[in-house]
Amino acid sequence: MVRFGIGKNKKRSMKRLFFIAFSLLAYSKVAYAQTLRQVYVGDILSATVTSFYIAIEKGFFKEQGLEIKLVRMPGDVMVRAVTSGNVAFGTAFSSGALGAASGLPVKIVVGMLQKPIFTLYARPESRVIRTRDLKGKKVGVTGFGTATDHAARTILRHHGLEPGRDVVLIPLKSVPNLLAGMQSGSVDAAILFPPYSFRAEKASMVKLDYLGDILEMPNSGIFTSDNILKKDRELVRKFLSATVKGIAFLLNDRQKDQTIELMMNYFKLEKYAAEASYHFIKSVHTTNGILNETSMKKFIEVGLMEEHKNKRVEDIFAFGPLKEILETR
């Protein structure tokens, strides 16, 4: 009887070839990983820079040869870390912009949201249906001098109410505390932003005023150091190219479900909160990472302390590198 099969020597050869092929594949993956440049980015984990997280998760930075390493830190610490070179970029827009206005060697290089994210809500038990009804009542903010404090003062003054005289501002330290404060009755109203604003609506809180209806002012973006802008233009080019691709992904309706799923996972959100946050962010997002001149000037006029209101747009924002990239797309 004739037996058909593979001889022992041939089997050994095939095993050897398989082992070599597997080793080469494993080596190529290691080699590829080693060629990626690690870039440390200071981060505050905010839904306002969702397009940046998309670029990370979808591999857009790796396409540029970069591996992003996020380092969680407060905004003031982030500015020091960027200026010292401990991290290359930072996502705390307000801290970066205020640092630039104060003369620190940093600049905003990508703008995310063209409008503010803050909304004033009231608890239904307070019987407040309009902002001016808050006279004599208590409004929660995270702290004095914070973005929520600034938003509250702007909205109240827009309606003829003077904080401290007509309305008491109560610092509650964190955004979750603001919503809890309304629910418990320790404050009559509070400044919230996504996703907490949508959780407030689900809890039947009364929406009074959205700051973006009063003024157009940028709210989020990414900054880097003057040193990197001058001496590492290749890094800036690659970083911005990937970031812009993330923005395009977020704005593409066909990828809506993927973005919402990412937000649910990234920020531990309920689906309704992720969906509402997505639609809000998309509605106020820049189309390409560049803020318009009006909003940048408004930020200087309204968002800075009195001693910094003489600053020029170019003292704080540096969109030249991003414009160069967009021109070649």
How would you characterize this protein structure?
The protein has 329 residues and is α/β, with parallel strands linked by helices. It is 49% helix and 15% strand. It contains 15 helices and ten strands. It has helices at 8-35, 50-57, 60-63, 75-84, 93-101, 147-158, 175-184, 196-202, 226-231, 233-251, 256-267, 271-284, 293-303, 313-316, 320-327; strands at 37-43, 66-72, 89-90, 106-111, 119-122, 138-141, 168-171, 189-192, 206-210, 221-225. Helix 2 (50-57) packs across helix 10 and helix 11 (256-267) packs across helix 12. The protein is globular, with a radius of gyration of 25 Å.
What is this structure, in a nutshell?
Helix content is 49%, strand content 15%.
Give the radius of gyration: 25 Å
The computed structural class is: alpha/beta
Order of helices and strands: HEHHEHEHEEEHEHEHEEHHHHHHH
User: Average pLDDT, to the nearest integer?
Assistant: 89
**DSSP E strands, number:** 10
Please describe the biggest sheet, giving its number of strands, its sense, and whether it closes into a barrel.
Answer: 5 strands, mixed
| Major sheet: arrangement of strands | 2-1-3-10-4
Q: DSSP strand (E) fraction? A: 5-15%
Shape call:
globular
| Ends apart, CA distance between termini | 69 Å
Helix content: 40-55%
Number of helices: 15
Low-pLDDT ranges: 1-6, 20-33
Throw out a few tags for this protein:
alpha/beta, five-stranded mixed beta sheet, globular, disordered N terminus
